[in-house]
Amino acid sequence: MPREKGKSVIATNRKARHNYTILDTYEAGMVLQGTEVKALREGKASLVDAFATVDDGEVWLNAVHIAEYGSGTWTNHPPRRKRKLLMHRREIDGLIGKLRDGNLTLVPLSMYFSDGYAKVELALAKGKQAHDKRRDIAERTAKREVERIVGRRVKGM
């Protein structure tokens, strides 16, 4: 059976870019059970409140909800289990150093299929405070207003 080519997004963490300043991103494979893959193909996943940790030199994805597969039997997976992520050793060692140094965390940004394999995009991130979030919203609004005015002038209004 041929695998589909390209990237098809399963779930995104829309709040991540609002709550965190993204410093770096990584791509990691996931160790999944069969019913989890089938549920992901149906798009039944949520990254709300999800985070990743590094334990004993391995990266783990926590609090990701992958709903039970509808046609599954007693072999169905638990929806919120800890899932191992697959990364290169040098990437994991770099993450361990960066996480140990500062006030940083690993947040999943999106989950997708890439050439038939389930992947997750992780971000090395620093939490934003309330005043940082307000400043970002104000900058976004000002930029939108400038684009609107420039667009009107181009159209001759």
UniProtKB/TrEMBL annotation:
Top-level taxon of the source organism: Bacteria
Classification via InterPro entries: SmpB, SsrA-bd_prot, SsrA-bd_prot_CS
GO cellular component, one term: cytosol
An example Gene Ontology molecular-function term: RNA binding
Keywords: Cytoplasm, DNA-binding, RNA-binding
Keyword Transcription regulation carried by entry: no
Subcellular location: Cytoplasm
NCBIfam families, alphabetized: PRK05422.1 (NF003843), smpB (TIGR00086)
Job description of the protein: Required for rescue of stalled ribosomes mediated by trans-translation. Binds to transfer-messenger RNA (tmRNA), required for stable association of tmRNA with ribosomes. tmRNA and SmpB together mimic tRNA shape, replacing the anticodon stem-loop with SmpB. tmRNA is encoded by the ssrA gene; the 2 termini fold to resemble tRNA(Ala) and it encodes a 'tag peptide', a short internal open reading frame. During trans-translation Ala-aminoacylated tmRNA acts like a tRNA, entering the A-site of stalled ribosomes, displacing the stalled mRNA.
Protein name, entry field: SsrA-binding protein
Protein's organism: Gordonia phthalatica
Gene that encodes it: smpB
